[in-house]
Recover the amino acids of this structure.
């Protein structure tokens, strides 16, 4: 297969950027879009030109570093996939493919298609954990957890932190990311003691880091490679209200 | 913390929005007295004005609610545009519909309409000739005022356009309320969204039916 690529190139965080066009030739339909870019990069290197910078690691949909905006959709049109899992057979022969980096004030561009996702780590640091005593691990099953609660917590915990929700959101809001973490921990007994402090800290930090507000567009769930449900945003809102009425101690 | 966080602001947005919705439902039910004839509508209007101080308390509360909703709406709109300084060259929405993307604009249309509506029917400054004619027989005829107003296609069109904005705003707003106050779960979302359209549709049809009746059938 053959494609025309329109790729965002930007030399550094503050450098001006722009689209450049490349021809991708001899593309196999079962290649991933990243493998296709690798091939284009090899040609660029051979010609002595600067290869296109993008991030990837596991290339099997679990590490969450590979987000690109492909034809206007983070991780591409097909649902529940990461960029590294997106195969070239989803495109039409000869098609022009526009590839852009994630766009959000809180996720600045480092170079070309690579963005700095530190803000997501800072969000987790503000409260996305449970405090526990060190020492030998406690006996399993000492704290009973209902199957339904455990399953719902695990649905929320599936988040791989790729940031596609922020990229897809017209307001660059991190509500799905934060909601998933708050819900995951609030659903489990281990997370309850710190639940009020956590939701207060994380929603406050989200604002400080420059993420936008939720307008309930639900674009986030639509692009989430793990299909994290927007009900977790609603659950976070519920936890927030509970925290408002909880006496400070 | 309610003011500093986006979740808190959305919560206030949702609460003020739903208070205005409750007001609007009450207002719409009151308007239905039109269908019982001129005397019923006039009596209903008299009845409201006779509430005196209670009416003023209600007006002050609604004014406060409106100001808060608008101020927060502008804040959210501004913050959101700051959070996304660069837009995509190519963007394709997956879920967001026309209603959710235009909340701010439909809101502004409603705001402009609320001002006009108050000047038109409450303060009564926009159409002196009509008020003159309506205050003929000793007492003020609200029915007559509405009748003469809506026989002007322009005034009817303004009302129609404003109610369309309300329809669009609420078709997203009502569902949004359930999400923002934390009541949405797996199975509620679809119902709540359908319910929003139905409620917004019923309000729209009822509200528009009255100017339409006057304008088209001269009732
Ligand atoms: C009859 C008057 C109005 C009613 C009944 C109403 C109702 C609502 C409701 C129920 C919501 C959903 C809250 C949520 O997201 O949880 C909402 C959102 C909103 N309203 Fe209104 N509203 C009215 C007037 C206005 C006006 C005058 C403005 C002017 C700026 C406005 C601007 C907004 C905006 C921007 C949002 C979306 C906030 C966001 O999600 O980012 N509304 N409204
Ligand atoms: S490279 Fe790890 S998820 Fe795509």
């Amino acid at each position: 297969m053959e494609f025309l690529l329109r790729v965002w190139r930007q030399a550094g965080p503050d450098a001006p950027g722009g689209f450049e066009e490349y021809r991708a030739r001899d593309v196999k339909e079962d290649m991933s879009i990243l493998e296709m870019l690798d091939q284009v990069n090899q040609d660029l290197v051979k010609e002595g030109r600067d290869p296109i910078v993008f991030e990837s690691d596991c290339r099997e949909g679990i590490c969450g570093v590979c987000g690109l905006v492909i034809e206007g959709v983070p991780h591409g049109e097909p649902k529940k996939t990461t960029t590294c899992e997106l195969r070239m057979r989803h495109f039409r022969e000869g098609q022009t493919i526009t590839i852009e980096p994630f766009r959000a004030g809180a996720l600045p561009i480092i170079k070309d298609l690579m963005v700095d996702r530190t803000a997501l780590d800072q969000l987790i640091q503000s409260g996305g954990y449970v405090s526990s005593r060190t020492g030998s691990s406690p006996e399993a099953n000492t704290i009973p957890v209902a199957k339904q609660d455990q399953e719902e917590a695990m649905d929320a915990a599936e988040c791989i932190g790729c940031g596609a929700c922020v990229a897809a959101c017209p307001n660059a809001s991190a509500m799905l990311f934060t909601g998933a973490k708050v819900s995951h921990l609030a659903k489990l007994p281990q997370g309850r003691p710190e639940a009020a402090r956590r939701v207060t800290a994380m929603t406050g930090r989200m604002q400080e880091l420059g993420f936008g507000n939720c307008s309930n567009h639900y674009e986030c769930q639509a692009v989430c490679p793990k299909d994290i449900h927007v009900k977790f945003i609603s659950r976070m809102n519920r936890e927030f209200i509970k925290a408002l009425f909880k006496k400070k101690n | 913390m309610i003011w500093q966080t986006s979740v808190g602001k959305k919560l206030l947005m949702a609460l003020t929005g739903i208070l205005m919705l409750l007001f609007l439902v009450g207002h719409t039910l009151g308007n239905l007295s039109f269908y019982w004839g001129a005397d019923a509508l006039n009596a209903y209007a008299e009845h409201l004005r006779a509430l005196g101080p209670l009416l003023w308390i209600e007006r002050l509360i609604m004014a406060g609610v409106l100001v808060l909703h608008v101020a927060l709406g502008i804040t959210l709109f501004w913050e959101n545009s700051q959070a996304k300084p660069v837009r995509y060259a190519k963007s394709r929405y997956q879920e967001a519909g026309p209603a959710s993307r235009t909340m701010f604009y439909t809101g502004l249309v409603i705001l402009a309409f609320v001002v006009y509506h108050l000047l038109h029917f409450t303060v009564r400054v926009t159409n002196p000739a009509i008020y003159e004619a309506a205050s003929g027989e000793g007492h003020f005829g609200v029915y007559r005022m509405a009748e003469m107003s809506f026989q002007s296609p322009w005034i009817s069109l303004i009302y129609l356009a404003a109610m369309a904005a309300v329809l669009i705003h609420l078709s997203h707003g009502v569902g949004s309320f359930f999400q923002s106050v934390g009541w949405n779960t797996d199975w509620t979302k679809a119902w709540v969204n359908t319910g929003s359209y139905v409620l917004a549709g019923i309000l729209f049809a009822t509200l528009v039916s009255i100017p339409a009746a006057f304008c088209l059938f001269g009732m």
About this structure: Chain A has eight helices and seven strands. Chain A has a mean pLDDT of 95. The longest helix of chain A spans residues 231-245. Residues 3-111 of chain A form a domain with the Ubiquitin-like (UB roll) fold (CATH 3.10.20.30).
